[in-house]
Amino acid sequence: MSKQILVLPGDGIGPEIMAEAVKVLQLANEKYQLGFVLGYDELGGAAVDKYGVPLADETLERARAADAILLGAVGGPKWDAIDPAIRPERGLLKIRSQLGLFGNLRPALLYPQLAEASTLRPEVVAGLDILIVRELTGGIYFGAPRESRLLANGERMAYDTLPYSESEIRRIAKVGFDMARVRGKKLCSVDKANVLASSQLWRAVVEEVAKDYPDVVLSHMYVDNAAMQLVRAPKQFDVIVTDNMFGDILSDEASMLTGSIGMLPSASLDADNKGMYEPCHGSAPDIAGKGIANPLATILSVSMMLRYSFGQVEAANAIEQAVSKVLDQGLRTGDIWSEGCRKVGTAEMGDAVVAALATL
Ligand SMILES: NC(=O)c1ccc[n+]([C@@H]2O[C@H](COP(=O)([O-])OP(=O)(O)OC[C@H]3O[C@@H](n4cnc5c(N)ncnc54)[C@H](O)[C@@H]3O)[C@@H](O)[C@H]2O)c1
Ligand SMILES: CC(C)[C@H](C(=O)O)[C@@H](O)C(=O)O
Ligand SMILES: [Mg+2]
């Protein structure tokens, strides 16, 4: 039976990197007879332009009906000044929330060929393989009330709310423990329990869930220390589980350990492993339209899709091997370039991965 993949290229570099990821997906589709049928729609600024909203109802329905979703990136200066209610990013938050994609996996893995591309010393990052499990549909991103208003004295004020229920914490903690169990059996829960009530509950619930995972070593760390430890000694971590906003920030930080944010893929999963797959980076307006963006995070997101939504381990591994082969050949986009390597553009990088995959 065929499987439906909904492709949402998005804005800025989104369509450029997506074109390369789709080439790789199509080849994997043929080579491994995956039976995928691709459909396309808009999300973010492109959807504002087409439908007047960043996520149209019909797009949401197509996403619900699809077996998996592949997303580029959304947002950009063109839509920064519009009504905040229809900002491109709102479409992304809505699709995550409406589809119940609460479990966000962000692996930071250093390809050995890129040790020189990291801004950290090679010995600090060599062999790095950590996974950030980010809660994606709760916390301060979605908390109510939130408001922006004028005080009686004429001063402007605004606030957000950071709520977490026990069940929201329990289900993401389980994802963290399950991931740690099949990896290095170490889970670090990152919070701000020395200050925030929501973090105090977070820590208590994570402790409760830990009782079902006696084989996993649990530790807790405050987020400010975690940010520091990630650049001091990142290899101390195996799996990190954390809330929505901390996970957003720490995953961008972790990306630089791997050489570039252009290397970090992600999977956003619901309770049944139905998922949306996207690079961790944004629409990179500063380089959009130049054909120089790194497509590897999106290509590696395709690999995550094959692994997590479809159990196609052989095809998923092959895409990762193809990426590794291309790096072995010395091909680099500008963001991961170092002395002695050959600088290539987005399409040349994508074509090289396709060629490498074809020979595997
Ligand atoms: N998931 C998403 O769709 C997503 C994620 C983050 C930011 N955004 C949006 O993207 C827009 C720009 O945000 P930003 O500038 O803070 O973050 P960004 O991730 O788009 O860019 C940050 C920096 O990283 C570089 N970069 C990002 N991806 C790259 C790639 N594949 N190859 C090479 N270089 C790359 C950019 O050129 C820029 O210098 C905003 O509208 C923001 O809301 C969207
Ligand atoms: C664009 C924005 C809403 C999004 C987030 O904060 O979740 C992005 O930064 C990400 O990391 O996917
Ligand atoms: Mg982010």
UniProtKB/TrEMBL annotation:
It catalyses: (2R,3S)-3-isopropylmalate + NAD(+) = 4-methyl-2-oxopentanoate + CO2 + NADH. Its cofactor is Mg(2+); Mn(2+). Its EC number is 1.1.1.85. GO terms for cellular component: cytosol. One of its GO terms (molecular function) is NAD binding. Signal peptide: none annotated. Residues 4-353 form the Isopropylmalate dehydrogenase-like domain. It comes from the Bacteria. The record marks Y141, K192 as: Important for catalysis. Coiled coil: none annotated. Its main location: cytoplasm. It is found in: Cytoplasm. Substrate binds at R96, R106, R134, D224. Binds 1 Mg(2+) or Mn(2+) ion per subunit. Keywords: Amino-acid biosynthesis, Branched-chain amino acid biosynthesis, Cytoplasm, Leucine biosynthesis, Magnesium, Manganese, Metal-binding, NAD, Oxidoreductase. Mg(2+) binds at D224, D248, D252. Catalyzes the oxidation of 3-carboxy-2-hydroxy-4-methylpentanoate (3-isopropylmalate) to 3-carboxy-4-methyl-2-oxopentanoate. The product decarboxylates to 4-methyl-2 oxopentanoate. Belongs to the isocitrate and isopropylmalate dehydrogenases family. LeuB type 1 subfamily. Homodimer. This is 3-isopropylmalate dehydrogenase. It comes from Azotobacter vinelandii (strain DJ / ATCC BAA-1303). The lineage of its organism: Bacteria, Pseudomonadati, Pseudomonadota, Gammaproteobacteria, Pseudomonadales. The gene is leuB.
